[in-house]
Automatic annotation (TrEMBL):
Keywords on record: Cell membrane, Membrane, Transmembrane, Transmembrane helix
Keyword Transmembrane belongs to the record: yes
SUPFAM superfamilies (UniProt xref): MFS general substrate transporter
Membrane topology annotation: Multi-pass membrane protein
Name of protein: DHA1 family inner membrane transport protein
Source organism per UniProt: Garicola koreensis
CDD domains the record matches: MFS_NepI_like
Domain of life (superkingdom): Bacteria
Amino acid sequence: MSRTQIALAILALSIGGFAVGVTEFAVMGLQREIVLDLGVSYAEGGLLVTFYALGVVIGAPVLALLGAKRERKRYALFLLALFAGAHVLSLLAPNFETILAARFLSGLPHGAFFATAALMAAQMVGLAKRARAIAVVLGGLAIANVSGVPAVTWVGQQFGWRWMFAVVTLLALITIAAITVYAPHQKPPEGASIRRELKGLANQRLWVGIGLAVVGFSGMFAIYTYLSHISVEVAGLSDSALPWVVFVFGSGMVVGNFVGGWGSDKSVLGTVLTAMTLVAVFMALFGLLAHIPWLMVLLLFLIGTSASALSPSMQTHLIDTAPNAPQLAASFHHSAFNAANAMGALMGGIVIDAGLGLRAPAYSGAVAAGLGVLIALYAIVLTKRAGQKV
């Protein structure tokens, strides 16, 4: 393949990340509209985030295993078709319980698609540039937070929050067309099998990495799930400012994603440790200063930057820990990320409903990130013991 062909193929894969990013994060920006329209509590509204995340946690390893021996392009297209169908169900769901079920189904193909797309991109560019290629695929998700999520948040505020599901369905169909045209066919690795992938799980470094991702990412979601409430009720911003608040956070995610990809090609775990430390610091400051609008927005950008830098570095680290189970290891990044999503949304809802206030999710997130720093240090020790590059 020429460099242009490779670039177009990776761009096509990143469009899928864009579609996933819109559905994963736009529901957070529309929390106030959903809660008010359906007459549910803050914590119940947070279940729309939690159920999607649980779908990812369960679907990522299961569907990744089923795809271990399959041709990667066709499997990516199958996963996107499943994703689109689940959003049609979300759009037409008659009640809150059905929407929860549809959100769970929407999450099932999320992790397996990203795992397949990341492995396709890495194979196309080679070992030296794989983290940057993975960052481009994941960059679709980050860019969604700058453009797609603010736009869909505005559309949802103006015309009804269900329009989010129609937009995501259209994006999924565009992605299917782009991958069909531009992405190459890729056979799975020689000797790939479900048994081989499962055997690759017997690896301490892999499970430490998964724990690191779950704990480290959870704090970001504790804030982001309730961002619309914090922005209006703590910082005193208007509802009309929410698309811009989401835009700022998304901008930080885009910057962090590509900085993380660049840093990971130099030191994977060094990038993880630095980013995790910054997340802990910025989360604590966010809790202290959220009542000052411009500082709240600035810290939100910095949280987005530092947390998103973890994404390509953690994806690369998990692939490195299980070379004999690349499909499954890559999918676990997204299981962990969305376990953190579910845990963060739940944790934030619990501390708010306990009467601790809307700043409490930031403090609980800072504690989680601090624990993530300790786990990152342990992961570095294990990697050095294995004689591998940190």
